[in-house]
Structure formats: C-alpha cells, structure tokens
Amino acid sequence: MTAKAACADFLHFFRSWISNPLRVAAIAPSGDSLARIMTSEIAALDGPIIELGPGTGVFTRALLARGVSEADLTLIEYGPEFIAALQARFPSARVLQMDAAQLAEAGIFEGEPVGAVVSGLPLLSMSPAKIAAIVAGAFAYIRPGGAVYQFTYGPRCPVPRPILERLGLEAVRIGGTVRNLPPASVYRISRREPLDLSRERFNYRESDAELDDVAALSRETGG
Ligand SMILES: C[S@@+](CC[C@H](N)C(=O)[O-])C[C@H]1O[C@@H](n2cnc3c(N)ncnc32)[C@H](O)[C@@H]1O
C-alpha cells in the first residue's frame, strides 16, 4: 500500500471514529504488525473465512498475503461508510453490511464449513449478551479444529470467562505488538477438547479397580 493510500485510509477511519466512536473504537486502522499476528495461523486451506469488522481492510489484505483466496472471504461490516471501499478493493469477496450479532440467524453458510473467523470487532465496548451472540454465531459456522482470532487493547481476552465456559471454548494469547496504536494482543478462541477419561489414557491398573468399586457402589445405591 502506498503512503498516499495509507494516509487516505487513516482519514477515512478517523472520520468514522469521530462520527461513531463506540462502534469504530480506534482512531486509526490496525498496523501491519498486528495484522500479521492476527493471520499468522491461517492458510489458504482454511477457507472459507469470515472477517468481522474489517473497516478499511487491513486484516483482509493480510489474509490475501497468506494465500487465502479472495473468493473465500466473507466480510461482515456494520458501518455503511466502509462498504463501498471494501467492495471496490475486494471485488471477489462477499461483503455483507450487517450486525455481527445477527450471524447465527443470517444463515450465511450451510453447516460448518468455515476454517477461521478473524475479528476486528470492538468487544470491549459491547455488552456481554452481544459478545455471547457474536461468538456463538461465529462457532455455528466454524468446522472442528477452526478458531476465532480476536485482538484487544486490554490486558486479557475480551470474551469474558463465563461466556467462554458456557460455550465450551478456551482462549489462548498467541502474541502481541507494541507497534500498533494502541498496543494490542491477539487471542485464539477454540473449542475445548472433550475430557478423555478412558482407562487407556490413564493406564493405571490400581485406579481401574477403584473405579470398578465406585461403579459397583453406585449401582448398589442406585446413584
Ligand atoms: C476497531 S475497528 C477495526 C477495523 C479493522 N479490522 C482494523 O483492524 O483496522 C472496528 C470495526 O468493527 C466494525 N463494527 C463494530 N461493531 C460491529 C458489529 N456489531 N458488526 C459488524 N461490524 C462492526 C466497525 O464499523 C469497525 O469497522
């Protein structure tokens, strides 16, 4: 991207922030350093991919640089002021102007084909109910092994722990950068592995006998 184009994007973004500070929630687009971390675990084969809150398309460009096909991208942006520029820049991507909290009801894919969701949404300025709707909506389309990538300017994952637990998810910080305005961290949110309680896993004969005792006791007492 040329310096002139970057400057035009900054002004576009800054004006959006002035007119809607809560929705845009940053005075400038994310930097390339943050975009690289956000997309570092994503490859072409992860498509189709959903991006939430693309703004001027910093993460979208980083996804393309990682080899993701533009036709594999669905960009969900609520701000009408970003839509025309996204459509002009990424003509083969699907650009939808909608609230990311409506994802589940919108039926944008059949089943769970999506390998990754990249989110630039300002979760810190949203209610817990809205965050839960967005995250649950994203996982309605994410295939097994897929993940949501979310950045934050805060000190911890912006999806509150009770929401993660209720949805059977876990969050891991995968990196951070001070070369961003403001500095930011990136979290990978994925489905928690089901607990493997098989005997083979523990391979401990004495405890097997104890488990048999507990099972027998439970049967006897009707528990
Ligand atoms: C912090 S900006 C991030 C923009 C871009 N991803 C970046 O990193 O430069 C937040 C973006 O999310 C969009 N947004 C906010 N709330 C949204 C919602 N409920 N649904 C979809 N997009 C939303 C805003 O319009 C804005 O484009």
Automatic annotation (TrEMBL):
Any one Pfam family match given in the protein's UniProt record, by short name: Methyltransf_25
Keyword Nucleotide-binding applies: no
Record's keyword annotation contains Methyltransferase: yes
GO molecular function: rRNA (adenine-N6,N6-)-dimethyltransferase activity
Keywords of the record: Methyltransferase, S-adenosyl-L-methionine, Transferase
InterPro entries, alphabetized: Methyltransf_25 (IPR041698), rRNA_Ade_methylase_Trfase_N (IPR020598), SAM-dependent_MTases_sf (IPR029063)
Residue ranges annotated for the Ribosomal RNA adenine methylase transferase N-terminal domain, each copy included: 33-168
Protein name (Swiss-Prot/TrEMBL): Phospholipid N-methyltransferase
Organism: Rhizobium esperanzae
